Amino acid sequence: MSLYRSVRAVTGASGTGAIDWDAVAEAAKASTDPGSLELSEAERSGYAADVREARDAVGAVGSVYLTIGANRTRVGKVEVAVSGRITIVDALTDVERDLRSGTRVLVVDRIDGGTVLVEPA
């Protein structure tokens, strides 16, 4: 049974009883190929570069390239100078309003991987 058919079976079920979500999760796992988590050397190198750029961007002033959602609701992108070149990195903010394209921002922290936390500069 495919994952799609498993979900369809659960959502199409009728009755008044409670749904055993643990059983649903087990059925979905059992019917889904886990795939492979192996990365090629090029993929590993790309991820490592993203992490380095995000780490090195902390303290830099840049500008919003793609709108960032208020209170970490939507990942946006910022353009900053890192190691002497302009780069674009994923960004979130704790500010209570969206940060629109063109807004000057300060990179205050690296959240995870290649994502940074910014605030208006």
Strand content: 25-35%
**Secondary structure tally: strands:** 5
* SS-derived structural category: alpha+beta
What is the H level of CATH, i.e. the homologous superfamily of the largest domain?
A: Nucleic acid-binding proteins
What gap, in angstroms, lies between the N and C termini? 53 Å
Largest β-sheet summary? 5 strands, mixed, barrel
Shape: flat
Tally of discrete structural domains? 2
List the total number of helices.
3
Numbering strands along the chain, what is their spatial order in the largest sheet? 1-2-3-5-4
Q: What percent of residues adopt helix (DSSP H or I)?
A: 25-40%
- Write the CATH fold name of the largest domain: OB fold (Dihydrolipoamide Acetyltransferase, E2P)
Given as residue ranges, the uncertain stretches (5+ residues, pLDDT < 50) are none
Helices and strands, in N-to-C order? HHHEEEEE
Which CATH class of the largest domain applies here? Mainly Beta
Task: Give the arrangement of secondary structure elements.
Layout (H helix, E strand, L loop, with lengths): L2 H9 L9 H10 L10 H17 L3 E6 L9 E7 L2 E9 L10 E9 L2 E6 L1
Parallel strand pairs: 3-5
Antiparallel strand pairs: 1-2, 1-4, 2-3, 4-5
